[in-house]
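Justification of computing resources. Each target in the renewal requires a structure prediction run like the one illustrated here; the chain below, 67 residues long, is used simply to show the kind of job we budget for.
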Amino acid sequence: MNDSKEFCPHCNANLQGEPIPKESQKHYKSTHFTRKIGITSIEADRILFWRCPDCSKEWGVGYKLHF
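Resulting structure tokens:
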């Protein structure tokens, strides 16, 4: 199961959120929620980029976060 460890590519803040309740983890296929903020577009109907909740800097959806 994915432990969701991700770090901001700008400030290196830990983006791993609160634990997902054990009984729901199989539905999310992960053990923790994420803290990163998805910025969406109604027109595109998808997440366009991510924003760090700590430094407010943004990066593209395809950017690979280091673990």
